[in-house]
Amino acid sequence: MCGRISQYREATRYAQHLGLTDPFMLFDAVDRRPGYNLSPGTHPLAIFPGEALRAIHWGYCPDWARAQNLPQTINARAETAASTRYFKDLWHTGRVLVPADGWFEWRLEAAPPDQHSDADADEPPAAAAQPVRQPYYVRLKRDEPMYLAALSNVRGTEPQTEGMGLVIVTATADVGLIDVHDRRPLVFTPEAARRWLDPALAAPEIEHLARHACVPAARFMWYRVSPDVDRPLVDEARLIEALQ
């Protein structure tokens, strides 16, 4: 899945790298600051057809789902989004991109040994320590921006009301990409990302992008980072630095 991203570069850098010719910034640059630990409920930048960039709530719940008191969702599966009630309309009319510099994953690992134990060597060994949930940061080896496929029901400059927002599309993880679970964000190169934004793209082409255009695992690197990333209110550059 994708539940935490970094998006710390200037918006103009994402636009230039993507090859936008006339980007339209629909946000106040004065109020924007680098995001190293963006979680659902925050407002990452999204890129829309027409080259507009806008800060969008991460989380989505259509009106019919809200009426049934169903929870908002933050991800959509690439394999099923085109046919599920939550996302089938957005799949064709609400494709956007979330520019990112990396994302976080967690996996259970053995707890580090206690280097300061004063236990008597003659005492029986204590029970094995519980595994810890270790965060990892995943980024491109070339440390360039990446573009996450996303869906949104926000249009133009209309106000965002309850239930409106975006979801990040996930795909099956490659063999070799950090062995956490079987999902990862659907990450595009700039060329594939521009095609994803094309509102005239036919359904078979959308499906082809979702199934075959994901950046392969060999182009990524990942490493352990501070467990402070578990705290959504902590948003500092040190969170994407490798642990010694």
Task: Summarize the model shown.
This protein has five helices and 14 strands. It has helices at 11-18, 63-67, 88-93, 190-197, 203-212; strands spanning 5-7, 24-25, 35-38, 45-48, 52-55, 75-77, 95-100, 102-109, 132-140, 146-152, 166-172, 183-185, 187-188, 220-224.
Please, could you describe this protein's structure?
- The protein is of the alpha+beta class.
- It has a single domain (5-110, 129-240), classed as SOS response associated peptidase-like (hypothetical protein yedk fold).
- It has five helices and 14 strands.
- It has helices spanning 11-18, 63-67, 88-93, 190-197, 203-212; strands at 5-7, 24-25, 35-38, 45-48, 52-55, 75-77, 95-100, 102-109, 132-140, 146-152, 166-172, 183-185, 187-188, 220-224.
- Strands 6, 7, 10, 11, 12 and 13 form a six-stranded mixed β-sheet that branches. A five-stranded antiparallel β-sheet has the order 3-1-8-9-14, with no helix packed on it.
- It is globular, with a radius of gyration of 20 Å.
- It starts with a strand and ends in a 20-residue tail after the last strand.
List its traits.
alpha+beta, hypothetical protein yedk fold, six-stranded mixed beta sheet, 15% helix
Tell me, what is the CATH class? Alpha Beta
Based on the structure given, which CATH architecture is correct? Alpha-Beta Complex
Distance from N terminus to C terminus (CA atoms, Å) equals 27 Å
Would you identify the CATH H-level superfamily?
SOS response associated peptidase-like
The CATH topology is hypothetical protein yedk fold
The number of helical segments is 5
Tell the overall outline: globular
